[in-house]
C-alpha cells in the first residue's frame, strides 16, 4: 500500500516541477535503487537518461523564474505534468509489482501538485507582497527534496 503513496508523491513532484520527478527516477534506476529491468521503463536505467533529464530539470528550474514562462495550468504544461507524473508513478509502482496502479496514482498526484502548487504559490506570493522569486525557490527545494526522499525510500 505504501508504494501507492510513493507513486502519488512522485506525481505531486511532477505537478510542481515536471522534469524533477523523471530526473530523480532516472537517477534511481541508473544507480540501481529502482529495478526497472524487463519493464517498458527500462530505458530510464541507461546512463544517458539521467543526464538528459537532469539537464532538462535544471533548464526548467531556471526558466520557471522568468516572467514569460506560461502558467502550469495551460493545457500543454498541465498535460506534460500529468504525463510525467504517470510515467514516474508507473516506475515507482513497478518496484511493487503494480505499475498500472502506480501510473494512475502518479497521474492523480500530478493533478494535485499542479493545481495545489499553483494555489499555494499564488497565495504565498500575495502574502509576501508580490515577491515571487523566494516562493518559487522554496517550491523548487520542496520538489527536489520530496523527489529524493521518494526514490531513496523506494529502495
TrEMBL record:
InterPro entries: DUF4126 (IPR025196). Keywords: Membrane, Transmembrane, Transmembrane helix. It holds the Pfam family DUF4126. Residues 6-150 form the DUF4126 domain. It comes from the Bacteria. The keyword Nucleotide-binding does not apply. The chain crosses the membrane at residues 44-62, 82-115, 135-154. This is DUF4126 family protein. It comes from Kaistia terrae.
Amino acid at each position: 500500500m505504501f508504494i501507492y503513496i510513493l507513486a502519488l508523491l512522485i506525481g505531486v513532484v511532477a505537478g510542481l516541477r515536471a522534469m524533477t520527478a523523471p530526473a530523480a527516477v532516472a537517477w534511481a534506476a541508473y544507480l540501481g535503487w529502482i529495478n526497472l529491468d524487463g519493464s517498458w521503463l527500462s530505458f530510464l536505467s541507461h546512463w544517458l537518461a539521467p543526464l538528459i533529464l537532469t539537464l532538462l530539470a535544471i533548464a526548467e528550474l531556471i526558466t520557471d523564474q522568468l516572467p514569460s514562462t506560461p502558467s502550469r495550468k495551460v493545457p500543454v504544461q498541465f498535460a506534460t505534468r500529468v504525463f510525467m507524473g504517470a510515467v514516474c508513478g508507473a516506475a515507482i509502482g513497478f518496484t511493487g509489482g503494480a505499475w498500472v496502479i502506480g501510473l494512475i496514482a502518479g497521474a492523480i498526484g500530478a493533478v494535485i501538485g499542479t493545481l495545489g502548487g499553483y494555489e499555494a504559490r499564488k497565495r504565498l506570493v500575495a502574502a509576501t507582497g508580490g515577491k515571487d522569486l523566494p516562493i518559487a525557490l522554496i517550491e523548487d527545494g520542496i520538489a527536489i527534496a520530496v523527489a529524493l526522499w521518494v526514490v531513496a525510500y523506494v529502495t
